[in-house]
Structure to design on (219 residues):
């Protein structure tokens, strides 16, 4: 999810996993990243309902942190395991995509799309990147992206590398931060065997990643 909140600077990105329980309660984790803080927090309360149109209303969601709550969201289901998300409370305005979690990507070639905001110099320039990456048999990342930062000259074939910590659910990525030559940390959420989303969980910048399995085509 991308949007704004009531924090310093206004910019907001959120990710996580909503657990829609059979008794109408909501569990899971919510990752909240703005220019004040970031990190994963357990969802400790909330309810959900669904109407005949496929609209899921998540209401009175609270977390184990001191962020402003309750939060409310609406998910518009497409009938194929995906949904569009909308934030509908007074603390944040967000929109994004949601997916049913059914698996975990493995070794293979993927296309990556990433975008976010750099918190350097207070002007919060927007950045974006896309390109091919490969995950090896221990889920190390290698590849490159075409990388662009607002106000700068776009860069082609910027090297991307990284590792996957499956125990902590973290990606450690180099090459998606023009202002930081070190590693950025992303909390990841697998969708299925060919797709994954991730959100940056450090204080370097704001970032969202989407990867999807790529099928090479003959030129």
């Amino acid at each position: 999810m991308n949007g704004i909140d009531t924090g310093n600077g206004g910019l907001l990105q959120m990710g996580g996993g909503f657990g829609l329980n059979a008794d109408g309660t909501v569990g899971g984790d919510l990752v909240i990243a703005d220019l004040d803080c970031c990190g994963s927090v357990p969802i400790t309360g909330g309810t959900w309902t669904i109407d005949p149109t496929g609209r899921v209303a998540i209401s009175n969601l609270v977390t184990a942190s001191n962020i402003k709550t309750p939060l409310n969201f609406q998910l518009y289901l497409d009938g194929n395991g995906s949904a569009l998300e909308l934030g509908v409370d007074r603390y944040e305005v967000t929109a994004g995509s949601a997916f049913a979690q059914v698996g975990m990507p493995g070794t293979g070639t993927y296309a990556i799309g990433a975008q976010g905001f750099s918190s350097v110099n207070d002007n919060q320039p927007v950045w974006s990147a896309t390109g091919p990456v490969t995950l090896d048999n221990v889920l190390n990342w290698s590849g490159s992206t075409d990388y662009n930062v607002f106000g700068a000259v776009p860069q082609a074939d910027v090297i991307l590398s990284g590792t996957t910590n499956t125990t902590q659910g973290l990606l450690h990525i180099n090459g998606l931060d023009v202002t930081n030559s070190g590693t950025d940390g992303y909390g990841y959420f697998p969708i299925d065997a060919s797709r994954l989303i991730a959100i940056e969980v450090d204080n370097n910048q704001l970032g969202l990643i989407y990867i999807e399995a790529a099928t090479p085509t003959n030129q």
The chain has no helices and 16 strands. The first strand starts at residue 2 and ends at 5. The mean pLDDT is 90. The CA atoms of residues 28 and 52 lie 25 Å apart.
